[in-house]
Amino acid sequence: MTDGFVAYDPARDRLHFLNLTATMLLESCDGSLRARELPDLLAAAYQLEVPPVGEVESCIVRLLDEGLLVCRDAPLAR
């Protein structure tokens, strides 16, 4: 998709449509960054004055709930 990402979960027979921000977060969760670094990553990418901690946490929780991510640490644990 030009404005995001599509992921299919065959085990649950679910199709997920992710916007660009959720796609960026999903792709950034490759083990090279900790969850607490993600708000700063988005703030830099979108030139935000304040890192979107709550929004990132909500998105990560949703990706975990949908089975698109596997949690190694608590979301945004500091």
Annotate the secondary structure layout.
Elements: E1 4-9, E2 14-19, H1 20-28, H2 38-45, H3 53-65
Antiparallel strand pairs: 1-2
Structure overview:
The structure is a single chain. The protein is α+β, with helices and mostly antiparallel strands and 78 residues long. The chain contains three helices and two strands, in the order ββααα. Strands 1-2 form a two-stranded antiparallel ribbon. It starts with a strand and ends in a 13-residue tail after the last helix.
Mean pLDDT: 88
Return the string of H and E elements.
Answer: EEHHH
Based on secondary structure, the structural category is alpha+beta
**Order of the strands making up the biggest sheet:** 1-2
Radius of gyration: 13 Å
Distance between the termini: 34 Å
Shape: globular
Oligomeric status:
single chain
Q: Percent of residues in beta strands?
A: 15-25%
Biggest sheet details: 2 strands, antiparallel
Helicity range: 25-40%
pLDDT < 50 runs, ≥5 residues: none
Task: Figure out the total of helices.
Answer: 3
Number of strands: 2
Nutshell version of this structure?
The protein is α+β, with helices and mostly antiparallel strands. The protein has helices at 20-28, 38-45, 53-65; strands at residues 4-9, 14-19.
What brief labels describe this structure?
alpha+beta; 78 residues; two-stranded antiparallel ribbon
